[in-house]
Amino acid sequence: MQKAYVVGDIGMTDMVLARNINAKGILVLTGVGKGSLNEFRDTWKHIEDDYIAENVLDAVKWIMNDLSK
């Protein structure tokens, strides 16, 4: 089974993209990620992220762990 991931800091586009292509969405809290999670969460409230990462390294570690399952 092939797995795809979208790592991004803009929830309203990156997490929606992840769902549209059947990928796992990882929201990174660097850049505008904190605003996407808090201030702008209502713009993508119908989408759930699979993981919220502190930074890109945290996202990579989560992906590696997920791939090993």
Outline the fold blueprint.
Elements: E1 5-8, H1 11-20, E2 24-28, H2 33-37, E3 51-53, H3 56-67
Parallel strand pairs: 1-2, 2-3
What name does CATH use for the topology? Rossmann fold
Architecture (CATH level 2) name? 3-Layer(aba) Sandwich
- Please compute the radius of gyration using only Cα atoms: 11 Å
Q: What's the number of structural domains?
A: 1
Written description of the protein model:
The protein is of the alpha/beta class. It has helices spanning 11-20, 33-37, 56-67, and strands at 5-8, 24-28, 51-53. The chain has a three-stranded parallel β-sheet with strand order 1-2-3. It has a single domain (5-67), classed as HAD superfamily/HAD-like (Rossmann fold, 3-Layer(aba) Sandwich).
